[in-house]
Amino acid sequence: MDFSIKKHDRESITSLVNQQKAFFYEGNTRPLDFRLEQLTQLSNMIRDNETRILDALKADLNKTDAEAYVSEVGILLEEITFTMKKLEKWMKPKKAKTARTHIGSKGYVIPEPYGVTLIIAPWNYPFHLQISPLIGAIAAGNTAILKPSELTPATSELLAELIQHYFPASFIALVEGGVEETQELLKQPFDYLFFTGSVQVGKIVMEAAAKQLIPLTLELGGKSPCIIDGSADIPLAAKRVAFGKLTNAGQTCVAPDYLFVHHSVKEQFINEYKKVVQTFYGEHPIEEERYGKIVNVRHFDRLAAYLQDGEIIFGGSTNRAKCKIEPTLVIPSGMETPLMQEEIFGPILPILEYSDLEEVIKFIQARPKPLALYVFSKVESVQKVSQRGCLLVVVV
User: CA triplet 226, 333, 314: central angle to 5 degrees?
Assistant: First the structure.
């Protein structure tokens, strides 16, 4: 049976899950040698098809070979190498202290595979974020069913072909399709779910998992703030903010989503940001082949609407036919606009001026915790105060 399922097929999906459960219960995935062999096979799959992978990412997101290799291919090869070096150590039981009531006994923490896993990938890094969780699944002794995004069809189709060629369906398989296929997968009795994507869809995945008490990992987005203090190296800050914001045309979950810039360096930062964008992509980024595109027209229209939510002070040009939006700086017209309420996920960057850092931290804390908070400051007290705003703080 062809287990690269391209359409809604409940019977085939159920059969596939049952086949993987049988393979897992037979103990096939437990030996260290098996896991290392499969990780080597995964590495071979990537190396053997590097050009095709880069071509698919170019077709779906207009990624250059350099950007695609760094963010989607090379990083996976490094992760596989690291995992293989550490795996034997990770698999060993570790001694654990026992309670006083159990004097004379010995306790151990023994790493145990979950079983059959489902890995749902997003469209913004469609190869990397499908394969990276798979590395962990294989290393931990699980089987896996992959569900790539239908919004990146070239990558999805290539992944389906490669997975089927390099792995038996009883161990790793892939289901293509859209909402119907995902809904059917979420009805299955998986042993673990791994989802990367939006908060909205994450809630649906978590609800489905809760109905069957399936443990899961959610890697979601959020509005990651960036603070530029008056003491910061402004040219360096502008370059790093632009790199983080404009890689993959802003379609990155940890990209800076809005800026708080100290009033004393606001104009300098804006001027430096303009210079960096021109250095990266020239005078007309939309015409630059190296500049990425928005994944589809629906997301382009969503982003274009944000341009109405404030005063554009740099950029703002769009090309709907090419699904491209120029790197843009916007002064928001209000904090309740969609621009400041929703994750942007594009090359539009709201910029806010501040004088009192405490007010900035209160603003950030009053909102859902983002994935990251970036602080550009040379003052240690500013760095420490900023750490109250988020779980993950990157200080520069």
Answer: 65
Express each pLDDT in 272-293 by its tens digit: 999 999 999 999 999 999 999 9
Q: Do 71 and 125 touch, CB atoms closer than 8 A?
A: yes
Give the number of other Cβ atoms within 10 Å of residue 350's Cβ: 24
Backbone φ, ψ for residue 140 (5° rounding): -85, 0
CA-to-CA distance for 229 and 265, rounded, in angstroms?
Answer: 8
Tokens representing 344?
């942007």
Q: What is the DSSP annotation of 235-256?
A: HHHHHHHHHHHHGGGG--TTSE
Residue located via tokens 């990425």: 292
User: Residues 323, 328, 330, CA angle at the centre, nearest 5°?
Assistant: 130
CB within 8 Å of 193: residues ≥ 6 apart: 117, 118, 120, 186, 205, 209, 214, 215, 216, 217
Q: What is the C-alpha to C-alpha distance for residues 350 and 316, in angstroms, rounded to an integer?
A: 12
Task: Give the pair of three-digit tokens for residue 281.
Answer: 């992509």
Q: What is the pTM of this model?
A: 0.92
Bridge partners (DSSP) of residue 107 are 96
Cβ burial of 148 (10 Å; 0-12, 13-18, 19+) is buried
Question: What is the bridge-based pairing of β-strands 4-5 and 172-175?
Answer: parallel
Q: Are 116 and 145 in contact (CB under 8 A)?
A: yes
CB distance 155 to 127 below 8 Å: yes
CB 194 within 8 A of CB 32: no
Question: CA-based angle 60:321:351, to the nearest 5?
Answer: 85
Q: How far apart are CA 2 and CA 15, in angstroms?
A: 11
- Grade residue 380 by pLDDT with cuts at 50, 70 and 90: confident
Residues designated catalytic: 219, 253
